[in-house]
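User: I've been trying to design a sequence by hand for this structure and keep getting stuck. Would you show me what you'd pick, starting by listing the structure so we're on the same page?

Assistant: Good idea, let's start from the same input. This is the structure you sent:
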């Protein structure tokens, strides 16, 4: 979730910079922030659980040898 916070923060900061430089209005929807956090959480869970689940199926002795 820390990556999600950093990503949303950088996205908003980049949007502010572009809006300020171009004179465009800034529009950040809460739904977009929620989707960004959802994807960040899903990716974090997948890439945390998938390798751990695969590792749990290995024989510990064989895993340490190889």
């Amino acid at each position: 979730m820390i990556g999600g916070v950093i990503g949303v923060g950088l996205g908003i900061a980049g949007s502010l910079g572009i809006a300020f430089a171009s004179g465009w209005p800034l529009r950040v929807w809460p739904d977009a922030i929620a989707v960004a956090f959802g994807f960040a959480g899903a990716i974090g869970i997948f890439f945390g659980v998938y390798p751990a689940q695969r590792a749990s199926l290995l024989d510990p002795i064989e895993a340490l040898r190889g």
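That's my pick for every position. To get oriented when you compare it with your attempt: The chain has one domain: 2-65. Residues 2-65 form one domain.
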